[in-house]
Amino acid sequence: MTSVGRRSFAVVLPKEWAKSNSLEPGDPVLIEVQSDGSLLLRPGISGQRAAVQTTKVIGVGATLRREITAAYLAGYDRIVLRSEEPLSSTDREVVRRTVRGLTGAEVVSESNNEIEIQVLLDTSAVEPEKVASRQNALVANNIEIVAEAIAEWSADRARVAIMMDEEIDRHYFTLVRAIRAYARSGRLPTVRLLDLRLVAKFVEDIGDRLVRISELIVSNALPKPSPDVLRDVSERARQLVSTQNRAFASFMGYQVQMAEEVIAEISAIIRSLAELEVTPGVQGDQRLLAIVNELRRIAEDQIDIADITAPAP
Question: CATH code for 54-121?
Answer without folding.
Answer: 3.30.110
